[in-house]
Amino acid sequence: KVTQSTHLMARRFFREATELDPLLPEAQIWRARVNAGLIAYGWTDNPAADGKEGLDAALRAIYLDARNPYSHYALAIVSAYTGRADQAILAAERSIELGSSFALGYLVLGMARLFSGDAAGARKPLARRLELNPHDPQNGAWFGLLMLALLFSGDVESALETGRTALKARPDWPALLRIQACCHAAAGHREQARRFATAASDFPEAAGDALGPFRDGNKEWATRLDELLREAEL
Question: What is the pTM of this model?
Fold first, then answer.
């Protein structure tokens, strides 16, 4: 369950696991991943400390099992949420080299490219990730990333088509509905944009949308999204 309390509980167990068996790579992988989640969803009071713990755990996982795609994914996801997009891209690429059908590797590769401002380069890996794992309950967030990559690489029609598919997976995800509204506003579909913006307010907010690095690293895009959403809400 993707909540703050379950993340904190899981981290406590993964920390205990690393103490019980310092040579177990899975314990380090998941300690890294849960720290990344706490940062991504805004559930930490000390992102610097949690980021350091996550990075240390991921590097330890690679030392213990360098042939495991999950080890490199752990480094990639923590790097993506600690302002290390270049390192995230390299680690994600390595995870895919080790497992050509490793969906999470494609996810974080596309994510890191998008966060670094390469919307066009993010499209293919994000689409591949959704193709490999179409039933992930978190796909509302990942469809949103692909829609943003399409929108900011100038392909609004493909973003809208992806949005139609996304609604089949998560029709109740407010952040996804807002991205839908922005895409319709960009296409000049005022009525549809207003409808999606209104629908977003009908649902309780899910876990954080995990787009902090996207906004921080791409101020112009973030401003454009705010403008489009305001247009949709008029």
Answer: 0.93
